[in-house]
Specification:
Layout: H1 16-19, H2 25-39, E1 45-49, H3 55-60, E2 65-70, H4 73-82, E3 88-90, E4 102-107, H5 118-130, E5 132-140, E6 154-161, E7 164-175, E8 178-189, E9 192-203, H6 207-216, E10 220-224, E11 233-237
Parallel strand pairs: 1-2, 1-4, 2-3, 4-5
Antiparallel strand pairs: 5-11, 6-7, 7-8, 8-9, 10-11
Helix pairs in contact: 5-6
Length: about 240
């Protein structure tokens, strides 16, 4: 997941896959492949921006020639171990430049929201568009909109593995158009019990914000309200 700040996952990176063990990356990759095959059946290459620990690319690498980009060195270390044949790049999604294009450029699992502001959203989508080949696709999986965000909602999640126990919880807060998740982690391993807090700030972008950013980047925008996990996806088709 590519972030606005580099220190977001310093403490939790080693637990990231356990924290999100409930997410069906295999199913997401399959649905993404179907979506791409329907709109760009000749696609052969794919760049995943905000790739995190490489879980999507783990399932996509046999279908496409894939690469990944993220701002977190800690998450990329895990991704490189998981997918040793895949090139990974450390960079900020608002400013990165790889000097080449791909048939498909993705930004999944709401990573786009970590840019926080509409100007940074537009800068990011422009970067994605710069890296998509003619006729290619940009696919963005959004975070909540201002209308759908559950302000004040209390969340608690638990990991119960033989050698790892984690309780992590937070309350959804809204501040100046940004959702703020102050996540408290309580982690138990054979080495002992530790507690730490991470504050995640994610922009609450509207439907028109996404469509407008794609259009301004020179892409033909389209919205699939179902997407990979019923949160929808935004698709930009390059001319």
């Amino acid at each position: 997941m590519s972030l606005g700040g580099r220190n977001m996952f310093v403490r939790s990176a080693r637990y990231y896959d356990a924290l999100y063990r409930f997410k069906d990356y295999h199913g997401a990759a399959a649905r993404l492949t179907l979506l791409v095959s329907e709109r760009h059946p000749d696609a052969r290459s794919l760049l995943d921006v905000g790739c995190g620990t490489g879980r999507h690319l783990e399932w996509l690498q046999d279908r496409y020639c894939v690469e990944g980009l993220d701002i977190s060195a800690e998450l990329l270390q895990i991704a490189r171990s998981r997918c040793p044949r895949v090139p990974f790049h450390e960079g900020d999604m608002t400013t990165f430049s790889l000097g080449r294009t791909f048939d498909v450029v993705t930004c999944l699992f709401s990573a786009i929201a970590y840019v926080r502001t509409v100007p940074r959203l537009r800068a990011t989508v422009a970067r994605l568009a710069e890296h998509v080949a003619p006729g290619g696709l940009v696919v963005i999986e959004p975070w909540f909109t201002p209308d759908t965000f559950w302000d004040g909602h209390v969340s608690a999640n638990f990991v119960d593995e033989p050698d790892l126990k984690i309780a992590w919880m937070y309350v959804n807060r809204r501040r100046a158009g940004v959702s703020v998740l102050e996540i408290e982690h309580l982690v138990a391993t054979a080495a002992g019990v530790e507690h730490f807090t991470e504050v995640h700030e994610l922009g609450l972008f509207s439907h028109s914000d996404y469509l407008g950013a794609l259009d301004d980047a020179g892409l033909r925008p389209w919205h699939d309200p179902i997407g990979l996990f019923e949160r929808g996806v935004y698709i930009g088709h390059a001319p």
